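Question (not urgent): is this output format expected?
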Amino acid sequence: MKFTKTSIPGVIVCEPSVFGDERGYFAETFRKDKFEEFIGRKIDFCQDNESKSGFGVLRGLHYQLPPFAQSKLVRVIEGKVLDVVVDIRKGSPTFSKYESIELSGENKKMLYIPRGFAHGFVVLSDYAIFSYKVDNYYSQEHERGLLYNDPALGIDWQLPIEKLQLSQKDKVQPTLDQIELFNFSSDLYA
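Got this back:
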């Protein structure tokens, strides 16, 4: 497995080795020992989630507050998405910056998102099956969101706004200047 740091410290692109022949392929998509060695700390993923979405569906930008903050390892099983993370750690040198990457069933890339980031994706193919591991359980009480088209962020979702399909909740999320932020200096969000 190959690990690549992004322009935002802590956000990591993971690429499994894929072995294929005329019968299909095999890929080791997660290996705890190698992953922990690269990130330099222990991780305990405790919940796996999966969603299926059609073209133009935008899910996000979501996060959870402590004590239910989550790190995520996300990937696409089928289809193609633009995956986006936004640094919402107050005091971080990359505060309010975003990183985006195309994840697909074809390229098999994954993205590791540490605690302290809002996360979302938009489907660029006819549909996508999206899968992710989290290191803390879902808590509706601690769930929060950030407005996908906040002008302060300037995210390029690669689709015209009229093609986007959002839940009612995601259409009215607060902007960056209105959300509860994470503290960059805390070990929990490194």
